[in-house]
Design goal:
The structure is a homodimer. By secondary structure, the first copy, chain A, is of the alpha/beta class. The first copy, chain A, has helices at about 5-10, 55-60, 70-75, 80-85, 85-90, 105-110, 135-145, 165-185, 200-210, 230-240, 260-265, 275-280, 315-320, 320-330, 335-360, 365-375, and strands at about 10-15, 25-30, 35, 40, 65, 95-100, 115, 120-125, 130-135, 150, 190-195, 220, 250, 270-275, 285-290, 290-295. The longest helix of chain A is centred in the last third of the chain and has 27 residues, at about 335-360. Chain A is globular and about 60 Å long.
Chain lengths: ~375, ~375
């Protein structure tokens, strides 16, 4: 209940605001290190960023990763992780971690879950066993996991969604936030609230007002990038941002395509996460300074250049497109590793470029150059 | 045809013979570095040791790896690898490589192949396309791949096998060796001949005599560990060894269980390879100084000790059994990586211990201690 103590270990320093956009340069201090914002958090769903070891994550420059409460609760169980000394110790990662609340995963189970005011009953996707998540339970689980930043239990509605349901859900998400806040008593973990409200301007604003009525160390925007056009996502962000306090970090959940990272930063977002860059990598699609490249394509079969000549990652410094294509086609683990290393390094470098551009008040120019050069799908 | 030049870049130095067994300590000099023998070669079938990067292979101490001609011929094709500057360059491995001749794989295709005196017609396991391997073709492919050590094209017969066929096959394998030797004209690659003859003492001796009648830089024993009891394998090795020249390396193909490495070294073998330690690793079975450990077992669920407290590998220094078990059960790539790193390091350390024991003339005692302590399946 008391967030006073957390200021000792957790706070956000707003270093600079961009002159020509809402973008901000900041530093997020956590018990496990400092994070330069805007930042992209690689996703380690099952206590590992797929294909990567902790040393490689450090090599690509990750300062914080995200892990999923639902998955860890189901397997291996939060009590085991607590017994191991928490998630940092369990997975041997000594930098910052954020855990989501499991809300998104539980609501994705569709036929397998039932929502009441009290919480959500759901069946495990692994063995069908029944479980019940309440706001209090989700806080308890996240306290066992021991991440630096934990998320309130929320409902993530699909797009499109009836306004009546979006309102009802947004109000319940706020009641759940109050219960999470009440249940939260660990001064070493920062609890973030989540703004919901679907694709409805008034609901988004109302949700932002309600959420920020509770003094929390950070605020997230949830329920975007769930199927709506990117224009709507960007609009929603624009509606919400003015209602979020300037001195607290803002986290746009589940977003991580290069264009959305730039657009989000321009609109004042400080933190992002997404599984897409790592999932794409394992399927053989890599991000480059000249656009996306599907390494499986026959045209790369005899291409002995690196994935991206402008990249400084381990994959680009040591291996050719032809070799990586061979590995991906032959379903060799090293293929997934190299493409994952590359995509994550690409995004870390992109975030660094974004921060540099904010410093120089040139982020709008940076966006123009980026899209002209690359033609990333918007 | 000319093996004179190869002495400049390839030779075997016999350092010491064990007083109480046939074990030998040696050094194998190749164009890509020196190998301490007896040695175990990790297998990189498709131009990658599964789950491992080249730096990790160096970290575990590998001085030489094996790669498979058949697989590389099928995908990505030896011409592509030649264009990449050879296998070393293609996979970014600057230490030694041995390629097999494809014989074992082609004969494993069973229904898909047809043997004549000229060679073997077979269908690709990937797309059913027809190909024809002759001794000359196999040498040509291996020259494109550019390994330090290449193998003659042989037939590996199953166990059990009719003596009549074993004789016919052994004689053909020798005629094929002569053709390989004739076709081989690359002085930077060392061609090894292969002793066959199934589980028949007289055929094995005859094959050893025939094979060594050609002056080659090394000799291999093939067609063992194909289903016969280990006692028969060890007997066959004992029959063959006296017919192999002392000043040339001896390679026992496809053998790599800890007990067989010790038994083989005692009988005078210098080189081993096997996919089993890496395959076992991916399935979650690890080798330890106290015997095999099936990390999937529930008993390791809350076991926060390393795989092997006596091991110095990256997995043992950084992660618990409980975490690695979680990764393996959750089918996470990092799980396969950590168990592979461990098993390969375990075998490198075992070979080092074997070499140390040969130096001290204590290999027989070492064997006794090893089996008493571990109870490895013999």
């Amino acid at each position: 209940m008391n967030n006073g103590g957390i200021l000792l270990t957790f706070h956000f320093e707003l270093i600079k605001e961009c002159k020509f956009s809402k973008a901000r340069l900041g530093k997020l201090y956590t018990p496990h290190g400092t994070i330069d914002t805007p930042t992209f958090m690689p996703v380690g769903t099952q206590a590992t960023v797929k294909a990567m070891g902790p040393d490689e994550l450090k090599d690509i420059g990750a300062q914080i990763i995200l892990s999923n409460t639902y998955h860890l609760f189901i397997r291996p169980g939060h009590k085991l992780i607590e017994k191991a000394g928490g998630l940092h110790s369990f997975m041997n990662w000594d930098r910052s971690i954020l855990t989501d609340s499991g809300g998104f995963q539980v609501f994705s189970l569709n036929e397998l879950r039932k929502i009441t005011e009290e919480g959500v009953e759901f069946k495990s996707h692994l063995d069908g066993t029944k479980h019940f998540f309440t706001p209090e339970r989700v806080i308890e689980i996240q306290q066992s996991l021991g991440a630096d930043i934990i998320m309130a239990f929320d409902e993530c509605i699909p797009y499109p969604c009836e306004k009546e349901y979006a309102l009802k859900s947004m109000e319940r998400t706020f009641r759940w936030l109050k219960r999470c806040h009440e249940a939260h008593n660990n001064t070493k973990q920062a609890l973030f609230g989540i703004v919901q409200g679907g694709a409805f301007k008034d609901l988004r604003i109302e949700s932002a007002q309600k959420t920020t009525s509770i003094d929390l160390p950070g605020y997230a925007i949830g329920g975007l990038s769930v199927g709506e056009p990117k224009e709507i996502m960007n609009e929603m962000i624009e509606y919400i941002i003015p209602y979020l306090p300037n001195n607290k970090p803002r986290y746009l959940m589940g977003v991580g395509s290069p264009d959305s990272l730039i657009e989000g930063a321009i609109r004042g977002i400080d933190m992002f996460d997404c599984v897409l860059p790592t999932r794409m990598a394992r399927n053989g699609t890599v991000l480059t300074s000249n656009g996306k490249l599907v390494i499986r394509n026959a045209s790369y079969g005899k291409d002995f250049r690196p994935i991206d000549e402008n990249c400084d990652c381990y994959a680009c410094k040591n291996f050719s497109r032809a070799y990586i294509r061979h590995l991906i086609k032959a379903r060799e683990i090293l293929g997934s590793r190299l493409t994952t290393i590359h995509n994550l390094r690409f995004l870390q470098n992109l975030m660094k470029d974004i921060r540099e551009a904010i410093k120089n008040d040139s982020l709008l120019n940076f966006r123009g150059d980026f899209f002209n050069k690359l033609g990333y799908d918007k």
